[in-house]
Amino acid sequence: MNRVTAGEIAELAGVSQSTVSRALRGSPLVNSKTRERVLRIANEKNYKVNTGASRLRSRQSRTLALLVHDDSEMGSDINPFFLSMIAAITKAATEKGYDILLSFQQFSENWIADYENSNKAEGVIMLGYGGYTDYIRKIGMLDNAHCVTWGPVIDGQPGHFVGCDNVHGGYIATRHLLDLGHRKIAFIGDVSDDCPEFQARYSGYRKAHEELGLDPTPQLQATANPSELGGYEAAERLIDRAVGHTAAFCATDLNAIGAIRAFRNRNVHVPADISVVGFDDLVSMAYATPALTTVRQDTAAAGHVLVETLLDLVRGNDVVSRLLPPELIVRQSSRQVRAEAMAKSRAGPRLTDAGRLDNAAPKARFNSR
Amino acid sequence: MNRVTAGEIAELAGVSQSTVSRALRGSPLVNSKTRERVLRIANEKNYKVNTGASRLRSRQSRTLALLVHDDSEMGSDINPFFLSMIAAITKAATEKGYDILLSFQQFSENWIADYENSNKAEGVIMLGYGGYTDYIRKIGMLDNAHCVTWGPVIDGQPGHFVGCDNVHGGYIATRHLLDLGHRKIAFIGDVSDDCPEFQARYSGYRKAHEELGLDPTPQLQATANPSELGGYEAAERLIDRAVGHTAAFCATDLNAIGAIRAFRNRNVHVPADISVVGFDDLVSMAYATPALTTVRQDTAAAGHVLVETLLDLVRGNDVVSRLLPPELIVRQSSRQVRAEAMAKSRAGPRLTDAGRLDNAAPKARFNSR
DNA sequence: CCGGCGGTTGCATACGTATGCAATCGTTTT
DNA sequence: AAAACGATTGCATACGTATGCAACCGCCGG
User: Fold this and answer.
1) CA atoms within 13 A on the CB side of B86
2) Does the fold of domain B166-297+328-360 match that of domain B6-49?
3) Sequence spans of domains, chain A
4) Residue among A55, A80, A105 minimizing CB distance to B283
5) Mean pLDDT taken over chain A
6) Superfamily grouping for domain A166-297+328-360
7) If both were cysteines, with which of A168, A174, A216, B238 could A208 make a disulfide (CB 3.0 to 4.6 Å apart)?
8) Three-class SS string for A295-342?
């Protein structure tokens, strides 16, 4: 516990407490010689400004709350992508001199107001509340709500959002597969209104097709909740439909991992028989077998933009929702379509497999990020 | 910003500010009828206690700092295991009514004192400071340092540590391989003084051997820093040594993933030719190919123990360092040793591989955690 | 010589809460 | 009936800082 107060530092420095406060906060009112002396003594005595008093007097907390949606009741782990975002956001906030109050919460009505009413935080960043965008938009309409949400950015919508350009992400992923010669490309992911992000990825998928005058049948779309198991089940349904797909674009990396496992179980091998592209670029995707071609979201950039946007909001500046550009990372799960593969849409016994293919493939680049 | 104060609630409720404060904090001095009325009004007006004032007056912050070592300058991502720990710790703190202040920091001398001097936090939990255990032990000697570190627990050492029982973890992993008939088991991991955790895992590895009267040669140990690449390089060295190992116990899951990739590149297949066991049970290890047999550290339990230990410390109670029991999770990367494999220690062309083995193996349990 | 001005400093105060102490009131004990 | 007691409430204050305002000092221009 700190027993040293600004008053004691003042006494030691032969000045008043006011001057100590001003010196520490970098006020131009203080003579540089005085400031130097005060800082030296404060440092010697290991003095730190008492945050309680500072917050009370200044009515500022220099703290941002980071709310991460906790869906652990659904048995699923926290999405690794969010964990990467947490680190990025925290570092960005630290750079700006702000602390991060971390919380994993179930959804409830009054968080934002609570954080600000109690002066625990000056603003809130929300992560993983895709299912609650409607409510968040409502919150966003309140002028005094300092809240930025990582999520779908929709033109003209109320509220403040920062998100990945999912349409473009879906586009480059699909375009990559089209460029490899694939013409029957499945889409694995939820395209319902519940998941605007995934809808956008699907929309990019359609856009890439339309550019080439193609019109993918709805049969090629398989709904999956954004987990590994979701991808697994969706891929099974897809195989049973026998639509002749030679590639699959999955709305998330976890979907992709699940789909690859389902394909393998049915003796459909990636990338020999089918190419797979994911979305997110989770850390471990470079380690998967085969290493996953995917669309990377730049979490470090996202962290900076989220924090800067929120601080603008806090300062009363005008703020616009922002889209961040994703990037295609080509690894080993996607390759040129083979004529024979076009014919093979269902499982059958095969001798080749992922393992051998790795060796047969051109020397794989080791992507350890 | 909260314009509602306890005084205003008091006026509305027809009581004094003191009574409001007491009612909100659950003091037994308040009549239950009065308390009810105060709570109702406070709720209606969406009143929240101003944390600044509360902290100043009570000299408590009801906040714990969570310091995560940032080694991003070394190009490596944050260890996924720590990310899992962060979530667990935060949830445990929330249950106890404490907020978590999250920070990713380079190592510096004065954190703990700084957090407490400024009354930002009542205590500190440190994650990922394996390389600084000596310094942390010194800190631990200070009576007023409220700090618990996730790390190696060593009998009689000063300071407060909570950690996994790495010796036992190493033991059960190795014992599992021995039970499968393996007799030449490699150890991949750093056994230098820098990494007491890994030393402990190695010690468990030796203990399992000694129980059967075996004495693994030092040739079977390959040093690796705890990354995927470290495991990759160590495995390559191991293969070149041609010591005839049929199994490998890796100090971390990332090491294991890297090693499996290196083996595959040399046409040594897991688990056909060699069994591999990891350590940590990262979320994605169930998705790896083959799904990794590993030693799980229960992060949820770790979070609870860390928080409870720290709170005990804050309250001035006696505290003992605690070891948490790890658990062996058997998946597909380990299997009974084959006579022929004993002879084959170097790479040679093979037709079988992980993919086919998955199908040949007894129906693999899908472990999605 | 005086008024004034820029550069520094100190004084006094308020931020909103938690808590020791005194006060009040109704009830029980002697 | 007086006294004592328990339950409940209000009063008054201090926590440590940030900041408006006044004060002070040295110097310049008039």
Assistant:
1) 30
2) no
3) 6-49, 63-164+299-325, 166-297+328-360
4) A80
5) 85
6) Response regulator (3.40.50.2300)
7) A174
8) EECCHHHHHHHHHHHHHHHHCCCCCCCEEECCEEECCCCCCCCCHHHH
pLDDT in tens, A261-297: 899 889 999 999 999 999 999 877 877 778 899 999 9
Contact B48 A90 (CB under 8 A): no
Domain B6-49 classification at class level:
mainly alpha
Which nucleotides of chain C have an atom under 7 angstroms from any protein CB?
7-12, 14-20
Residue A72 DSSP symbol = G
Q: Which structure tokens are listed for A78?
A: 């926290």
A contact residues 32-51, partner B, Cβ 8 Å cutoff: 46-51
Q: Give the amino acid at B357.
A: L
Helix (H, G, I), strand (E, B) or coil at A154: coil
> How is residue B184 written in tokens?
């030449």
CB nearest A48 (choices: B46, B84, B114): B114
Q: Which of A174, A346, A207, A292 is nearest to B288 (CA)?
A: A292
pLDDT at A31: 93
Packing angle of the helix pair B299-314, B80-95 (nearest 10 deg): 50
pLDDT tens digits, B295-340: 999 999 999 999 999 999 999 888 888 999 999 999 999 999 986 5
Q: B3 CB contacts (<8 Å, ≥6 apart)?
A: none
- What token pair was written down for B159? 């300071």
Angle at B68 between CA B63 and CA B72, to 5 degrees: 145
What CATH class is the domain A63-164+299-325? alpha beta
- Residue A71's pLDDT is what? 64
| Residues A173/A204, Cβ–Cβ less than 8 Å | yes
Query: Which residue, B201, B177, B178, is CA-closest to B189?
Result: B201
Residue A211 makes CB contacts below 8 A (sequence gap 6+) with A175
What is the pTM (predicted TM-score) of this model?
0.86
Instruction: Determine the distance between B288 (CA) and D19 (C1') in angstroms.
Output: 60
Span A163-183, pLDDT tens digits:
999 999 999 999 999 999 999
DSSP string for B282-306: -GGGGTSSSPPEEEE--HHHHHHHH
Residue A98's identity, in one-letter code, is: Y
- Lowest-pLDDT range of A252-266, B9-23, B119-133, B236-250: B119-133
- As a whole number of angstroms, the distance between CA A342 and CA A241 comes to 15
- Rounded distance in angstroms from the CA atom of residue B12 to the C1' atom of nucleotide C27: 30
- Whether the CB of B212 is less than 7 Å away from nucleic strand D comes out as no
B310 touches strand D (CB under 7 A): no
Decide if B359 and A80 are in contact by the 8 Å CB cutoff.
no
